[in-house]
Amino acid sequence: MATITRRGMGQWQVKVRRKGYPVQTRTFDTRADAEAWSRGIESQMDRATFVSTTAAEKTSLAQAIDRYKKDVCPSLARGGIAQMANLDRLKENLGATSLATLDSAQISAYREIMLKTYSLQTVRHDMGLLNRVLKCCQIDWGINLPRGLPTANVRLPKMPRARERRLKPGEEERLLTAARQYGGEIADIIIFAIETAMRRNEIAQMRWEQVELRRKVVSLLSEQTKTGEPRQVPLSVKAAEILTKRNVDIGPVWRITPNAITTAFMRVTGRAGLDDLRFHDLRHEATSRLFEKGLNMMEVAEVTGHKTLEMLKRYTHLNAESLAVKLM
Length: 328
Fold this sequence. Notes:
It is a single chain. The strands form 2 sheets. The protein has a 3-stranded antiparallel beta sheet, with helices on one face. It has a 3-stranded antiparallel beta sheet with strand order 4-5-6. It is elongated and about 85 Å long. Helices cover 51% and strands 8% of the residues. A hairpin with a 7-residue loop joins β2 (12-16) and β3. The mean pLDDT is 87. The protein has 328 residues and is mostly helical. The longest helix has 21 residues, at 120-140. It has 15 helices and 6 strands. It folds into 3 domains: 2-50; 57-153, DNA polymerase, domain 1 (Orthogonal Bundle); 171-327, Intergrase catalytic core (hpI Integrase, Chain A), CATH 1.10.443.10. The protein has helices at 31-46, 54-58, 61-71, 81-94, 104-115, 120-140, 171-182, 186-196, 200-204, 237-246, 258-272, 279-292, 297-304, 309-313, 320-327, and strands spanning 2-6, 12-16, 24-28, 211-212, 217-220, 231-234.
């Protein structure tokens, strides 16, 4: 039953009471609007299709993001530090909107604005994180979204074809010759990267306390890996030789920062005439070589630290000559 009460000038409060449902209250500027709203609510209750949207109306996206930071982020890798910038960006641009009124048009507009400043991958991460926040609202926190998941009706920016750069015949020799002429640790780091498939940051942050030359293993800590999970990296003969000749047993393995590795590598590739080669391409090369040596996908994933086999598929650009040998 609906009760409509006049409250001051131009204010009409309506309350709908029905057994089995929480009391629904709303204030309108006109009695006609109040009556129309109450009829709609009562009709939904008659058909047993009514779901309260009060929580969504009273909760802004900013509040939902804050709760996600408090309740969910601590359980993520590294306490969700990697997600904080994305969450802050979403909160700044969409935070004032209530969960009840957040729609796909607003999210699409956000996507287009962000694409003018940020990379495709960053915007995709924003969208994915927004989707997870809204799912938490519905599934974990009992906040009904009257429009459903608005992110479901928004297209993600399409990523360009994945980079597939591998070293061509003679390029590794040219690269290492230029690296040795450049001096410092970059030549050894290049060889080590090709032999282990480790990322730039993982290499730069290595410490001797994590190296077990007898077992030929480097034990990476969770805070050193991109995935936030610890990993043991096997050392090939060449990789072990590089570490053995350094003859140090405590502190950082390399006396160079991640950014310095990138700078040195760019100068080396410039000298070698390989300007289109990036340091991360060495990981692609190393991963592909692991497949060419006969390791299966699960074994390669154990070495490289890829979380899903789907992510690993793009690295399997095997050398045709190696495949031809297997077909003989």
